[in-house]
Specification:
Number of domains: 1
Number of strands: 5
Bound molecules: adenosine monophosphate
Number of helices: 9
Helix content: 55-70%
CATH class: Alpha Beta
CATH architecture: 3-Layer(aba) Sandwich
Length: 184
Amino acid sequence: MRLLIFGPPGAGKGTQAQFISKYFDISHISTGDIFREHIRNETPLGIAAKRYSESGELVPDEVTNAMVRERLSQPDVADGFLLDGYPRTPSQASALEEMLPEGAQLDGVLNMIVPEEELLKRLSTRGRQDDELETIRRRLRIYHDTTEPLADYYRDKGLLLDIRGVGGIDDITKQIIDAVNGRS
Ligand code: AMP
């Protein structure tokens, strides 16, 4: 099972990804978590990513694509994964297609839909370093301008599964599981 979870900052991607990856027994790959880990450990990748990540900008595609390519070459993801926070640009989406094993396809793209006022409320109480109001606004704008158009790209491929990302966490998880099982 190869899934993407897609949605604006604060949509609950990370929370849902943990439950969903457990349910389908696939590895959860969060590019944001990988970047944060590298930044914490001050690796060369972390040093390259830090100023982008902390100001709410996207890390350049070449850096991000190389990191995901390396992660997807590991044996635990040969048969499936849940990618969280990637792809975020059209160039990342085409890079991902080239990274998949010969003949392999994505099984679904979970599109988490949450109203903007709810996102602002959640992000301003989360307390992460990139959750300052100005940074939040920048992240939402970049999502809207650069990442959101990818939803249509996956919708055209028949892969997009719209999920209403408000309400109880368990209800949202159930909605996702039903949507994925409905496809397969
Ligand atoms: P996230 O936790 O997914 O919101 O990611 C936190 C930060 O990591 C983002 O604001 C970006 O700076 C960086 N990041 C994560 N995923 C990507 C990606 N696919 N492309 C570029 N930058 C990313």
